[in-house]
């Protein structure tokens, strides 16, 4: 069964667009997964590139399906968006992340933030601030510890709606971060007027560092832009010490990637400062 599970999984990930029938089946399985508790959160450390300290974590959802194995979020999040399950998943993720952060605080582990991804579909629907408000009340987490990651494209697809939603979220006291930055053609004027705290340089650019001239130029430009707007920059997808060195040298404050630590279940996280290259 394990073997066929792997094959199915490989098949799903190879296909860029799933067949309609497969999407329906996966959607039904996902609905069950929520009820059966098959979703899990993993957490990836985010490191201060100057000190090596773990400043925060990003929560990343995992679906452990008994037959299919580990279904990656790139596969099931789009299915969830189509089948209308995304709101339930995102609110489960939000609540779980906030509960975990509270548990760490109570255990004496003090992080600056826990980051949670928000799907573009939920973001474009606009009731996100209500979800967030409810979850903060339920879990008792202080808003300043929660950071929401919204992709640049979700923001720029409908900038007027995004702007008012981001302002409502900001007035709840949570922090906002623009994910996959550099892939979505932001206008500078827009960016200046958004109440965001962080930009996350897309890992596609980090992958080419330090050799690729275009990736290096774009990375430096994003860092400079962030600084001129008073924002913190995070680079994701750091896999080599050379990438970390390049980023630190060009003023990138925070870093995340396999080189510092893979996403892992809460109990397996390593909180020790990372040796810096
Ligand atoms: P993302 O938000 O850009 O997350 C970063 C992805 O890069 C994660 O993949 C992470 O495991 C992976 N990653 C981290 N470090 C490295 C590295 O050094 N090298 C490489 N090659 N990859 C690295 P993951 O967990 O498979 O998630 C993929 C995407 O699925 C996320 O991209 C995000 O868009 C979405 N996603 C994940 N969790 C959630 C969630 O809870 N809610 C929503 N709405 N979307 C989620
Ligand atoms: Ca993210
Ligand atoms: Ca990202
Ligand atoms: Ca990305």
TrEMBL record:
What keywords is this UniProt entry annotated with? Membrane, Transmembrane, Transmembrane helix
Q: Where is each EAL domain found?
A: 23-277
Q: What name does UniProt use for this protein?
A: EAL domain-containing protein
**Organism, scientific name:** Serpens gallinarum
């Amino acid at each position: 069964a394990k073997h066929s599970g792997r094959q199915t999984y490989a098949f799903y990930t190879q296909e860029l667009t799933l067949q309609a029938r497969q999407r329906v089946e996966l959607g039904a399985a996902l609905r069950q997964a929520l009820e059966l508790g098959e979703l899990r959160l993993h957490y990836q450390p985010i490191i201060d590139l100057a000190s090596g300290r773990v400043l925060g974590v990003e929560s990343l959802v995992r679906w452990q399906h008994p037959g299919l194995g580990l279904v990656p979020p790139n596969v099931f999040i789009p299915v969830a968006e189509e089948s209308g399950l995304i709101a339930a998943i995102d609110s489960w993720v939000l609540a779980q992340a906030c509960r975990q952060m509270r548990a760490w605080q109570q255990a004496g582990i003090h992080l600056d933030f826990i980051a949670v991804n928000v799907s573009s579909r939920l973001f474009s629907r606009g009731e996100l601030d209500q979800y967030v408000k409810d979850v903060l009340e339920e879990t008792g987490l202080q808003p300043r510890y929660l950071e929401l990651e919204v992709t640049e494209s979700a923001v720029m697809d409908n900038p007027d709606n995004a702007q008012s939603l981001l302002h409502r979220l900001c007035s709840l006291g949570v922090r906002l971060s623009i994910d996959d930055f550099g892939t979505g053609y932001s206008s500078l004027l827009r960016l200046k007027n958004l109440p965001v705290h962080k930009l996350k340089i897309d890992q596609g650019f980090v992958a080419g560092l330090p050799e690729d001239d275009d990736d290096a130029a774009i990375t430096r430009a994003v860092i400079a832009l962030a600084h001129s707007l008073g924002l913190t920059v995070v680079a994701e997808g750091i896999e080599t010490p050379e990438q970390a060195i390049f980023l630190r040298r060009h003023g990138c404050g925070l870093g995340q990637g396999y080189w510092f630590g893979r996403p892992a279940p809460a109990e397996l996280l390593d909180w020790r400062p990372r040796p810096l290259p």
